[in-house]
Amino acid sequence: MSLCVASAGVVKTLALAAFTLTWTHSIEKTEWQEDWRVTPQGLELTQARVKGTGAGMEPPPEARLIKGWFQWSPHQSPHREVILGNSGMAGEWRICSDGACRTLSQIIGHDVGPHPTTMIACK
């Protein structure tokens, strides 16, 4: 399985079985991280972390504070696709794997600007 990332008419295939999606909250300027697995059923969110709390970013009751991060394991069915918007207010989404992170623009090969990006599990 691989991760396919599409934005502004460009599709890139990343040979990833798992990755971390990270971004900065546009209002609170606080970092969020989500761990995802690429499965035959789709993209599975396995863990979420947020560095603080604030406007629209309250962690769920089961979250635990570990080394400065609220962490929890969401219980969701795999997603057929994940669509990422880009407000331009907080920097870009980043996909991290094997200790390295790249912005969506770096992955796509040009500035994604305000265009949405779609992630899907691909073969």
Structure description:
The protein has 123 residues and is mostly beta strands. It has one domain (2-122). It contains one helix and eleven strands. It has one helix spanning 104-108; strands at residues 2-7, 10-14, 18-24, 31-39, 42-50, 64-66, 69-72, 81-84, 94-97, 100-103, 117-122. A seven-stranded antiparallel beta sheet has the order 6-7-5-4-3-9-10. A hairpin with a 2-residue loop joins strand 6 and strand 7 (69-72). The N and C termini lie close together (5 Å). 17% of the residues are buried. The mean pLDDT is 90.
Highlighted features:
4-stranded antiparallel β-sheet, 4% helix, single chain, 7-stranded antiparallel β-sheet, mainly beta, 123 residues
In short:
The chain is mainly beta and 123 residues long.
Write the SSE topology:
Blueprint: E1 2-7, E2 10-14, E3 18-24, E4 31-39, E5 42-50, E6 64-66, E7 69-72, E8 81-84, E9 94-97, E10 100-103, H1 104-108, E11 117-122
Antiparallel strand pairs: 1-2, 1-11, 3-4, 3-9, 4-5, 5-7, 6-7, 8-11, 9-10
The beta-strand count equals: 11
Q: Distance between termini? A: 5 Å
Main sheet characteristics: 7 strands, antiparallel
Please give the count of helices.
1
Instruction: Please tell me how large the radius of gyration is.
Output: 14 Å
